[in-house]
Inverse folding.
């Protein structure tokens, strides 16, 4: 078995090597600088390698070494609060090693080898262990307890277990057969981590975003896609989700996106407080940043790196949400590499295996019973950037075949500064039924009906709007004019939400319910008044209507709403009195 | 002295194929010696033990199989020094102004390495361009990349020059430079830029790279990289705030497509190569602010949308990389409005971090949002009026219709040398908003209405 070969040909990130014994997806070190690459094709004596670093100046004939391992990530305490590139190299470490710009040939461990963690065992000598079992805990950040797991393929009886401060690569547990366990384990990124059972999602992911929680909820363990043309607010929505989702762990993958935007995330996340715990959001977050000008092959890997880390925390029994921004950049990286390999292209030049890769990725989401017996989940929310905002393109279409929730961003809405600019007519959620019982119990038995009524009203509005386009709104009967007005109130007072407003940026379920209910009941009262003979002009002029517009910004929401509801009663009873 | 090979096996478009060489590095710079004694330069695109593919920057005209090929063993570098300021160079970096060669302080790789996202500072310094539609509605900040999406026959050059003349960070007198890279623009356009630079004295703090329409297309692929290398050098080594103007990105992409076709690559959308996103990103992403360094690189590129189509691959991919876009409208231009910026599809993603109480004014965002919403509504109503006539509108709708007209006439329209400060821009905004019923100003916090609304302001004073 030869594990040294040489470079035969170089074309950008694709390098062909000869004379090396390789397996598919082996990690190899290419050239004098030992650039990291991965075998993605084998033909005769030649292997095709995608290199994760810039290849300028690399020459044919330089040596190549096979590590024999597939691309893996290091899993253990210290993942949280980290900022990685696409192949789990910590960006702060890279900055120390190579300065402000990313050069090449530098390796860096995913987990710090110096830092010591306080390990508290939960098993004792003589206990029988199976793969995935929890052997102890480490307080990783103030609110997150890191549960140390037995690697999935290992089992045996504990012959020694330690307690105290250790580094991640020090032995903390020895099994009867002599196997030694550390707090760190490695896992190949392209292989899903095993679970004992997949479960059906039944609780909603609470995001604090009214249009998402209210109209198109995603379940914990579900999958959602946000496609939208540029400038329609994909990234802001993704970041809002990362900030406010009620999952314990957040993995945020900036895949081929803007450097300045990533910088913003890197600055903002440590500043923002988690609404539940009051601790910095960063303490429950892992960031993966591979900007659009960083090597394309590492961009392809970044999505797998992210989901493997998410699976690891899921296996500890946590609810994890994973945001991938954007899956289109990931698919384009596949296309770019595929075209360098001179593979037969499928639709729009994307490789024929695009659909398979997308579904494999989204299938790694889900609510599961982990090997440890605990329940955990991964919710995957993927942004899609369709060229020209055209949803018929291959990535959007292939994604929609898999995901259960579709949040359709709309450039038209963004242009009139309706944010979040999610189109309420095109979007859908297939979880609304499954989540019904949860809402009955935790929000209100009225919630589901209230939401359906609101949706119906919005649907009606769009029908009426077509008529208005032809004849003008004054030509409509008065009750329809009123319907239009109530629909406008739902759109502007309820659906619009200001991500940059300190109060409005997060809206709890209870507030969502009360707000929507107040708007709908204003509508009911107005219709009654109209039937009772009140002139529509007077109804439209009611102060309570305008007050409802701004109540969402109030710090003391319940009090403010109470006052408005009171004045609403008064106004309508006055109208009746006339 | 490196070896000279006379083993060209094939010449196809801008590419030559060289056989049986010693190992040659990927992306290496190549000199090709013609029989008539001239030398052309090229770059290695694909290298293997058997054959090396070279793209020739000055075009393959005059080449034959007897040409000698020398591989230099290094990648393309730009000699840099502070003396670059005030110079006019060709698209390949050779002096065009008759001046001496640049005595280099350093020679830098033109591909440029990616900035580690962790080393970046989020851009937040407001740049006042003096143009209301930009400052008020689509604020530019230092370190941003904000292109102009325009079309043939629209005044994007005038706007770019007005910005280059007027752009300032308020209350700061920090060293400032302009790097201008022309890619495939006509001689006439280049003259227009040059004479304006000379007229305003901007040339002495500018570096100009000119690749004109009749220069080889392949050269266009390195012109912007030379310009950005110069910009990064001035910004990060000499603490200057650099505004880079790249024009026209569309010509650059055409050159990229031409190269892709010559290499017989599998084409992506509309024949553009599948890696165009990555390639454009390697240009656009070279804007930013780096922690601990004083200078910054801000990009203001011009891109003409083929057929005014914003979904064309070039504007489309650009829009996914840049931090927004300023869209020039033919409709407004026809109405005689300068600058004809259509604010609705325009966007600055970094606006929110560059505005507000400490940077511009506390009510800035509210005013801008309200103007957007009101203008959008007014424009929609125009469509309705065309069908049902103005009389069918309600009183409220009429107000919005009028608002749209006034907005174009007073807020958008301004003189080519009119430099409005941000206060002026915002007060024009307020004057226009004051024409709407106050209850319709749903996006403005009541306290700002009390403080800035002309009706209330008059009362206070």
């Amino acid at each position: 078995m030869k594990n040294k070969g040489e470079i035969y040909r170089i074309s950008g990130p694709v390098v062909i090597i000869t004379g090396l014994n390789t397996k598919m997806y082996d990690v190899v070190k290419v050239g004098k600088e030992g650039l990291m690459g991965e075998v993605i094709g084998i033909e005769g004596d030649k292997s095709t390698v995608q290199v994760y670093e810039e290849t300028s100046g690399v020459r044919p004939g330089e040596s190549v070494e096979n590590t024999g391992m597939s691309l893996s990530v290091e899993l253990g305490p210290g993942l949280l609060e980290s900022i990685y590139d696409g192949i789990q190299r910590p960006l702060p470490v890279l900055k120390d090693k190579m300065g402000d710009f990313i050069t090449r040939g530098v390796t860096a461990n995913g987990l710090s080898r110096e830092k010591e963690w306080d390990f508290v065992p939960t098993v004792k000598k003589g206990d029988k262990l199976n793969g995935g079992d929890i052997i102890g805990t480490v307080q990783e950040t103030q609110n997150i307890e890191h549960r140390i797991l037995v690697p999935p393929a290992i089992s045996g009886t504990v012959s020694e277990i330690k307690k105290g401060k250790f580094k991640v690569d020090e032995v903390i547990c020895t099994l009867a057969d002599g196997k030694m366990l550390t707090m760190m384990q490695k896992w190949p990124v392209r292989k899903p981590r095993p679970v004992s059972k997949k479960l059906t999602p039944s609780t909603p992911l609470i995001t604090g975003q009214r249009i998402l929680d209210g109209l198109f909820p995603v379940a914990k363990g579900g999958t959602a896609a946000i496609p939208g043309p540029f400038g329609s607010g994909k990234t802001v929505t993704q970041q809002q989700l990362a900030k406010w989702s009620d999952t314990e762990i957040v993995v945020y993958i900036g895949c081929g996106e803007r450097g300045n935007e990533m910088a913003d995330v890197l600055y903002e996340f440590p500043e923002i407080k988690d609404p539940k715990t009051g601790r910095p959001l960063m303490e429950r977050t892992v960031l993966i940043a591979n900007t659009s000008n960083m090597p394309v092959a590492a961009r392809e890997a970044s999505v797998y790196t992210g989901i493997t880390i998410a699976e690891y925390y899921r296996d500890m029994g946590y609810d994890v949400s994973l945001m991938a921004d954007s899956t289109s950049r990931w698919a384009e990286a596949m296309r770019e590499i595929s075209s360098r390999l001179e593979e037969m292209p499928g639709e729009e030049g994307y490789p024929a295996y695009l659909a398979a890769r997308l579904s494999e990725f989204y299938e790694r989401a889900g609510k599961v019973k982990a090997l440890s017996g605990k329940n955990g989940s991964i919710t995957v929310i993927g942004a899609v950037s369709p060229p020209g905002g055209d949803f018929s393109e291959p990535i959007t279409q292939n994604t929609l075949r898999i995901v259960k929730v579709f949040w359709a961003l709309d450039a038209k809405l963004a242009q009139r500064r309706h944010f979040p600019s999610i189109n309420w007519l095109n979007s859908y959620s297939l979880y609304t039924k499954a989540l019904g019982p949860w809402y009955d119990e935790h929000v209100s038995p009225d919630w589901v009906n209230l939401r359906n009524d609101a949706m119906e009203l919005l649907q009606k509005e769009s029908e009426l709007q077509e008529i208005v386009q032809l004849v003008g709104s004054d030509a409509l009967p008065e009750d329809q004019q009123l319907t239009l007005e109530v629909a406008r109130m739902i759109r502007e007072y309820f659906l619009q939400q200001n991500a940059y407003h300190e109060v409005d940026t997060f809206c709890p379920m209870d507030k969502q319910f009360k707000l929507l209910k107040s708007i709908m009941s204003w509508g009911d009262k107005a219709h009654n008044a109209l039937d009772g003979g009140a002139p529509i002009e007077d109804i439209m002029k009611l102060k309570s209507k305008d007050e409802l517009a701004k109540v969402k910004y109030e710090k003391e929401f319940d009090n403010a709403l109470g006052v408005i509801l009171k004045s609403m009663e008064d106004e309508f009873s006055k109208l009746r009195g006339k | 002295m490196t070896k000279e090979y006379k083993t060209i096996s094939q010449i196809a478009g801008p590419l030559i194929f060289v056989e049986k060489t010693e190992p040659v590095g990927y992306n290496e710079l190549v000199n090709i010696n013609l029989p008539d004694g001239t030398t052309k330069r090229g770059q290695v695109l694909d290298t293997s033990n058997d054959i090396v593919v070279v793209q020739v920057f000055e075009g393959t005209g005059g080449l034959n199989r007897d040409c000698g090929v020398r591989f230099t063993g290094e990648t393309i570098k730009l000699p840099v020094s502070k003396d670059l300021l005030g110079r006019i160079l060709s698209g390949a970096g050779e002096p065009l102004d008759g001046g001496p060669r640049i005595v280099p302080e350093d020679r830098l790789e033109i591909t440029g390495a990616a900035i580690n996202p962790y080393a970046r500072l989020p851009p937040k310094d407001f740049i006042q361009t003096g143009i209301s539609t930009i400052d008020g509605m689509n604020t530019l900040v230092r370190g941003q990349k904000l292109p102009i999406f325009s079309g043939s026959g629209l005044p994007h050059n005038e706007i770019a020059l007005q910005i280059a003349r007027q752009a300032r960070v308020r209350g700061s007198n920090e060293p400032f430079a302009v790097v201008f890279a022309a890619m495939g623009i006509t001689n006439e356009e280049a003259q227009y830029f040059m004479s304006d630079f000379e007229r305003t004295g901007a040339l002495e703090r500018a570096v100009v790279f000119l690749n004109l329409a009749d220069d080889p297309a392949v050269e266009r692929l390195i012109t912007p990289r030379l310009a950005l290398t110069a910009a990064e050098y001035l910004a990060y080594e000499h603490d200057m705030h650099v505004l880079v103007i790249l024009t026209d990105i569309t010509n650059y992409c055409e050159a990229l497509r031409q190269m892709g076709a010559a290499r017989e690559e599998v084409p992506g959308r509309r024949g553009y190569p599948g890696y165009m996103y990555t390639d454009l990103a390697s240009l656009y992403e070279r804007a930013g602010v780096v922690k601990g360094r004083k200078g910054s690189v801000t990009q203001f590129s011009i891109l003409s949308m083929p057929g005014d189509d914003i979904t064309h691959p070039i504007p489309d991919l650009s829009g996914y990389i840049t931090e927004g876009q300023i869209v020039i409208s033919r409709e407004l231009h026809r109405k005689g409005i300068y600058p004809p910026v259509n604010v609705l599809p325009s966007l600055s993603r970094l606006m929110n971090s560059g505005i507000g109480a400490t940077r511009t004014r506390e009510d800035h965002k509210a005013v801008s949002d309200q103007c957007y919403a009101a203008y959008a509504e007014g424009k929609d109503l125009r469509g309705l009026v065309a069908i049902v006539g103005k009389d069918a509108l309600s009183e409220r709708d009429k107000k919005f219709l009028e608002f749209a007209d006034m907005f174009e006439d007073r807020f958008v329209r301004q003189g080519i040398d009119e430099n409005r400060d941000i206060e002026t821009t915002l007060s024009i905004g307020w004057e226009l908003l004051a024409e709407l019923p106050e209850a319709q100003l749903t996006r403005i916090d009541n306290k700002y209405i009390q403080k800035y609304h002309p009706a209330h302001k008059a009362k206070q004073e």
About this structure: Chain A touches chain B through 83 residues (CB under 8 Å).
